[in-house]
C-alpha cells in the first residue's frame, strides 16, 4: 500500500503519516468543541429555568 509523502508519527506503536494524525486530531478537537458548546448551552438553559423558578416562588 502506498503511503502519502511526508513524515510519519507513531500512535501505540503503529506508524501513521503525519497528515492522518493531523486529520484525526482536528476531528477530535471539533468533537470536543461541539460537546463543550452543547454542555454550556444546557447549563445556560438550566440556569434560566432555575432563575424562573426563583422569581415564581418570590
Compute the separation of the termini in Å: 70 Å
Q: Total helix count?
A: 1
* Pattern of helices and strands: EEH
Mean pLDDT: 84
* Model regions low in confidence, pLDDT < 50 over at least 5 residues: none
How much of the polypeptide forms β-strand, as a percent range?
5-15%
Structure explained in plain terms:
The protein is of the alpha+beta class and 58 residues long. The chain has a domain at 28-58. It is built from 1 helix and 2 strands, in the order ββα. The chain has one helix spanning 18-57, and strands at 8-11, 14-17. It has a two-stranded antiparallel ribbon. The mean pLDDT is 84.
Keywords:
two-stranded antiparallel sheet; alpha+beta; rod-shaped; 58 residues
Helix and strand topology:
Elements: E1 8-11, E2 14-17, H1 18-57
Antiparallel strand pairs: 1-2
Nutshell version of this structure?
The protein is 69% helix and 14% strand. It is an alpha+beta fold and 58 residues long.
Amino acid at each position: 500500500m502506498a503511503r502519502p509523502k511526508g513524515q510519519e508519527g507513531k500512535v501505540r506503536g503503529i506508524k501513521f503519516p503525519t497528515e492522518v494524525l493531523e486529520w484525526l486530531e482536528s476531528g477530535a478537537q471539533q468533537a470536543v468543541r461541539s460537546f463543550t458548546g452543547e454542555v454550556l448551552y444546557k447549563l445556560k438553559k438550566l440556569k434560566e429555568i432555575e432563575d424562573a423558578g426563583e422569581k415564581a416562588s418570590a
